[in-house]
Every structure is written in structure tokens, then in C-alpha cells.
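Lab notebook, bench 4. The sequencing result for the construct came back, and we need a structural model before the next group meeting so we can plan mutations. Quick request posted to the team channel:

Model the 3D structure of this chain.
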Amino acid sequence: MSLKRGIYLPPFDELVDPRTLAELARSAESRSWDGFFLWDHVAYRAPVQAVADPWVALAAIACATEHLRVGPMVTPLSRRRVHKLARETVTLDHLSGGRLTLGVGLGSDHNNELEPFGEVVDARERARLLDRGLERLNTFWTGEFQPPPLQRPRIPVWVAGRWPHRRPVRRAARWDGLFPIDLPGPDALAELADEVRGLRAGSDDPFELVVDIPPGAAAEPWVAAGATWVLTDFGSSRPRLAEVREAIEAGPQ
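Done. Here's the predicted structure in C-alpha cell form:
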């Protein structure tokens, strides 16, 4: 597979306006970026103040672009009603012309968006809800709900997991991609790539290994370790709009 490059943004504070995000995505497409992904939160810890709904913003982005792959990175299924998510994902897949990728994970209890809203806090229970939710979501996609997604056999699902935990790796191997967080370096990715190959032995279906790096950082070591997607991550929950524009205008390195 050839390497693909994406922009990875929190829709917070200076980036909270969906029209701004749509304009940034349109610019990214014109500069040959391959994807545009948003954090998915309903609240966030200080100093973040303003938070946008990523799904509404992604709809604006889908309407403003033609080729970029788009998606939330990542959605915690434990705080989502899966039947509602099924409708949202299929609708966005149709709106984008089959360009949606669904990033999923456990979520975090550090961002003031679980316990204050009555959501599940226990990590093991969130993991159980994630696995059950993914299976139920796939059932909705494959015929229980109409219309089905445009993409076949389904909307791609990338599973996030924090290094060095291995349960998310096993979960990801059953789906379409792995987004490991807090990797110490390319060697760790190479280790995960070997594990995924073993877990998926006998499968010829596409599988993505996704990493995030700072603007201007070299992608080559990560590609050598097995990365198929490299996302530019601004290393902060509050990147400045000017900084994001500059990185997009520079194009994928």
C-alpha cells in the first residue's frame, strides 16, 4: 500500500467553527492531503473552553470536499447509542460519497465527559460495551437498517489503543485498522505490525496502521516500520489556527 497523509485536529477553541474546519479541509484537499480527521468529545479539560460537535463538523467537511477521507478519531462507543451511531455513520458515508472512516476506542475518564454525564467510567465495562457495540453496529450496517453504507463490505473501522496495551491490538485485528497512541518510536510500531500480521494470518483484506506525528516530522521511519497512514497531529488540544493553516499549506512531506 502507498502511504497516505492526513490532518488530525481537535475541534476546540480557535477551531470550533464548522465553517473554519470545512475551509481548512478544502485547503488540505487542494494541497494533496489524503484525509481529515477530528477528535470526538462532548467536553474537555481546561484550558479548553469551546468544543464543537465533530459529527456536524464532519458533515460540513464532507460537503466542502470531494476526495479526502474523513472521520472521527476516535468515538468512544460506551457513550453512544449504537442505533443512532448507525444512522449517523451511514448518512455521513452517503453524504461524503463513501469516504467515511470510523475511529473507535474506550475513551478517557480524564476529560470531564463521562461521570458528569452519567456515562460508564470503569474501563473494563467500557471495553465490553465497545466490543458489543461494534458487533451491533456491523449488524445494522449489513442489512438490519436501510439504506446500507455505500462502502463495501462496510465502513472501515480503525481501533485506537494506548501503548503498550495489547487487548486493543487484538480488537483492532478483527476490524480494519489500528491507531496506536503514545508510541515511543517506530520500533514499537514494527512490533505491533508483526503482532497484527500474526493475528490476521490468512486474511487478504486491507488493514491500516495509523500513526500521528508533529508538523514537519519525518514520516519515513514510520513507513519503514509499517505505517500506512501518517497523521499530522499538533501536539495540543488547543492548536492555533495559523499554525494549522501553515502546516496544511506546506502539504504532506
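The longest strand covers residues 4-9.
Will bring this to the meeting.
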